[in-house]
Structures are given as structure tokens and as C-alpha cells.
Design goal:
Blueprint: H1 3-18, H2 22-28, E1 29-36, E2 44-45, H3 47-60, E3 65-74, E4 77-87, E5 104-116, E6 119-127, H4 129-136, H5 140-143
Parallel strand pairs: 1-6
Antiparallel strand pairs: 1-2, 3-4, 4-5, 5-6
Helix pairs in contact: 1-2
Length: 144
């Protein structure tokens, strides 16, 4: 596949997440996909684990979405520059103040994806976790 087709695979991958089309997302994940997320202690490996990770995210941020600002690529690699938003269902652990309420976040994100055979084989997430936690009202963000 050429670069433009790979960019389209990543666009479709993000669209599948936004529309909660787990079957389509499963198809767009390579069988041995590896996801590197700064919030995870280890890489997420395999199609089933990848889809479960995205579903767990939506369990906590029901309205979570990724808005693509621009995508570009070079060969098998695609960079997706995005705006990610969501509202927590409950205040995060460590939320401050009496009557703490769920809060929203909006952060820039960047995903680097390696696409082969029409599916995402490797995915790296880059984002400012501290900014996200601060927006969500976590006291952990100020302890770092």
C-alpha cells in the first residue's frame, strides 16, 4: 500500500473509535498490534487487548473522541495530529474539593502509526498526561 492508503487506514481507525464501531476497529488492528501508551506500564499487545483498551477508555470517558487536525505519512508510517476530548463519568482518584464533579479535558495528541497490509500494526500515543489530569481536577497532577 502507498502512503495515501496508509493515511486513510489511520483516518478510518480513528473514525471507527469515534463511532464506537468495535468490529471495524478490530479489522483495522493488525493481529499482533502493539500499542505504546504513556499511561500504561507495558505495551498493549494483540488485537483483542487493543480493542479492550479502547472500550475501557470509553467506559470512563463515554463522550471521548479524537478530532483529526492533520494526518501525513512517509511509507508505512503515519502521523496523526489530533485534539482529544472527553468528560469523565466520575471525578478521578485524588480529585480535590467537596462535591468534586466529573470534569472534561481537551488536549492535543499525536499518534504515530505503522500500517502494513491495510491494518495498524504499531501505534504510539504522545500527549501531555499532566495537562489532562490537571483539567480533570486530579491532585496527582500537582504532585509531580
Amino acid at each position: 500500500m502507498g502512503t495515501q492508503q496508509n493515511v486513510q487506514v489511520v483516518t478510518d481507525f480513528i473514525d471507527a473509535f469515534n463511532s464506537r464501531d468495535w468490529d471495524r476497529l478490530r479489522v483495522l488492528c493488525g493481529d499482533s498490534i502493539t500499542i505504546h501508551d504513556p499511561s500504561a506500564p507495558e505495551a498493549i499487545r494483540g488485537k483483542a487487548a487493543a480493542v479492550e483498551m479502547f472500550q475501557a477508555f470509553v467506559d470512563y470517558f463515554a463522550d471521548g473522541r479524537i478530532d483529526i487536525e492533520r494526518n501525513f505519512g512517509q511509507g508505512a508510517w503515519v502521523c496523526s495530529m489530533n485534539r482529544e476530548t472527553g468528560t469523565a463519568k466520575v471525578p478521578p482518584e485524588g480529585a480535590q474539593g467537596e462535591g468534586a464533579k466529573p470534569k472534561s479535558y481537551s488536549i492535543p495528541t499525536c499518534y504515530a502509526a505503522r500500517v502494513e497490509e491495510g491494518a495498524v500494526q504499531e501505534l504510539h500515543f504522545f500527549y501531555d498526561a499532566q495537562a489532562m489530569m490537571t483539567q480533570l481536577g486530579s491532585s496527582e497532577a500537582s504532585e509531580g
